[in-house]
Write a structure and sequence with these properties.
single chain; about 70 residues; mainly alpha; 2 helices
Amino acid sequence: MARKTSMKEKGDAELSKLLAETREQLRTERFAAAGARPKDSNAPRKLRTTVAQILTEQHVRTKTPVTTK
């Protein structure tokens, strides 16, 4: 089984890219579900959770000062 990656391990640019991709997937899932029964009915919920995790990590990074030694 693959190791689950944390949002804290990703860089700022990688988080931004992942956020854009996840929002696009959510948009396509939402419109695909309008026409027919989706294969995975929990997919939008999982995608919204991922978006929330990314936004939370970005917010934490902007609020905490970076300390250097």
